[in-house]
Amino acid sequence: MQRRRGRTERVRRRRRSSGSRGVNESCRSEFIELRKWLKERKFEDTGLLVPACFPGTGRGLMSKASLQEGQVIISLPESCLLTTDTVIRSSVGPYIKKWKPPVSPLLALCTFLVSERHAGSHSLWKSYLDILPKSYTCPVCLEPEVVDLLPGPLRAKAEEQRARVQDLFASSRDFFSTLQPLFAESVDSIFSYHAFLWAWCTVNTRAVYLKSRRQECLSSEPDTCALAPFLDLLNHSPHVQVKAAFNEKTRCYEIRTASRCRKHQEAFICYGPHDNQRLLLEYGFVAFGNPHACVPVSGEMLLKYLPPADKQVHKKLSILEDHGFTGNLTFGWDGPSWRLLTALKLLCLEAERFTSWKKVLIGDVISDRNEKASLGVAQKICSDFIAEIHSELRKVSDMKERKGSLISQLCLVEALRMEELRILQASAEILSSSLAPLS
Ligand SMILES: C[S@@+](CC[C@H](N)C(=O)[O-])C[C@H]1O[C@@H](n2cnc3c(N)ncnc32)[C@H](O)[C@@H]1O
């Protein structure tokens, strides 16, 4: 029989959940305008979700009633979606159609966003543009000295992202100059790098996946991004499941939740099973307690930890290479990944057992000595990483004191490093309990 809850317990439960409770922002003028705009475009507002500001995740959508598994929580008509079709039908369309070689779908969307933002109150998309963030925190927007504080693998990807965006901008300038007849001001000032970067980040952090039909006037790169006003206010949680797709019958982009959500809680979608480095790279944030978060270990790094004077080292490395064991090696919340441990077991394999290398790769235990040696190396890597993160955190905190203007960017790096530290500490505990019976 279910126990009836007393008043004290109800109050306690309410207090416990109020930590994640948001402040309803639906009365703000920009959201009132957005609602009107959506209604004009046939959006049926059920009032189920309202914009709100949450303590942990910032602006998002709050449920006004409890959401049940399988329920459609947003159904956004085609007329509300911003796709390359929208762009081609707009004033920049004829210029896109004329330009050779054809512009990419991504460039078409960015061009539209910059042009419409410049149009201000004359834009048909004003109500949507007004709710878009003014700035972003993807690595491409971070100061180089902050990027330098990112973990090595992410730093490399961040630099590659910056180079890609800068290249796209530089190679698009001739195309932008053809748009001059549309504007009274110089296109150089309208299509500045700053404006382009804002548009690129808008598409990169907010677009939903929607495969559009191939447009002859666009390049053959995949045309799979659409901006979905209102729906793009949903934040990410790695703990929820949703189905998101365009419904051909209703001609609406629908989000169907597969997870429950209590009344007045934040409603989330899942952007994918991304680790924190990927979330920071693509979306400019870090998720706390992310089950997919991990700390990567590069193949080259393992070399530093090899037993000295191992004559079989080259053979071992080429086995790892041939069997794809040099990438995707990680520490996670439940310790070193199976792939990392397997690579270490092979590298620690005693000379007289070398012929058993195939058994190692399928997960067989070769000897206590091999188990102990590989776990010992994992432990050493883990403790070196922990020391390195402490030192990086000190650098971040020094810079926070010296460079007040970079605080929010530095807090992001700090959040990432703190999560990595927690993962490594969890791994260190698991490793020492796995080693205990072997010593
Ligand atoms: C599609 S938008 C979601 C709505 C957005 N928060 C807004 O105010 O417009 C994606 C962006 O929201 C933020 N975001 C999403 N999920 C988040 C989370 N769990 N924690 C913090 N920020 C999050 C990130 O800045 C991300 O780039």
Your description of this structure?
- With 439 residues, this protein is an alpha+beta fold.
- 47% of the residues lie in helices and 12% in strands.
- The protein has helices at residues 7-18, 29-40, 84-89, 93-98, 105-119, 126-129, 144-147, 152-177, 187-190, 193-206, 276-283, 299-303, 313-322, 338-347, 357-361, 368-402, 407-435, and strands spanning 23-24, 49-54, 58-63, 72-77, 208-209, 225-226, 235-236, 242-247, 252-257, 266-269, 295-297, 329-332, 335-336.
- Strand 12 (329-332) and strand 13 (335-336) form a beta hairpin.
- The two termini are 50 Å apart.
- S-adenosylmethionine (SAM) binds next to strand 3, helix 10 and strand 7.
- One of its GO terms (molecular function) is histone H3K4 monomethyltransferase activity.
Structural class estimated from helices and strands: alpha+beta
> How far apart are the termini?
50 Å
Largest β sheet strand count, sense and barrel closure: 5 strands, mixed
Low-confidence regions: 14-19
Helix fraction by DSSP (H/I, runs of at least 4): 40-55%
Overall pLDDT metric = 93
Shape: globular
Which homologous superfamily in CATH is the superfamily of the domain at 82-227?
A: set domain protein methyltransferase, domain 1
Total strands:
13
Radius of gyration (Å): 26 Å
Outline the secondary-structure elements.
Layout: H1 7-18, E1 23-24, H2 29-40, E2 49-54, E3 58-63, E4 72-77, H3 84-89, H4 93-98, H5 105-119, H6 126-129, H7 144-147, H8 152-177, H9 187-190, H10 193-206, E5 208-209, E6 225-226, E7 235-236, E8 242-247, E9 252-257, E10 266-269, H11 276-283, E11 295-297, H12 299-303, H13 313-322, E12 329-332, E13 335-336, H14 338-347, H15 357-361, H16 368-402, H17 407-435
Parallel strand pairs: 7-10
Antiparallel strand pairs: 1-2, 2-3, 3-10, 4-9, 5-6, 8-9, 11-12, 12-13
Helix pairs in contact: 5-10, 14-16, 16-17
The chain binds S-adenosylmethionine (SAM).
Family: Belongs to the class V-like SAM-binding methyltransferase superfamily. SETD4 family.
InterPro entries: Rubisco_LSMT_subst-bd (IPR015353), Rubisco_LSMT_subst-bd_sf (IPR036464), SET_dom (IPR001214), SET_dom_sf (IPR046341), SET_MeTrfase (IPR016852), SETD3_SETD6_MTase (IPR050600), SETD4_SET (IPR044429)
Organism: Rattus norvegicus
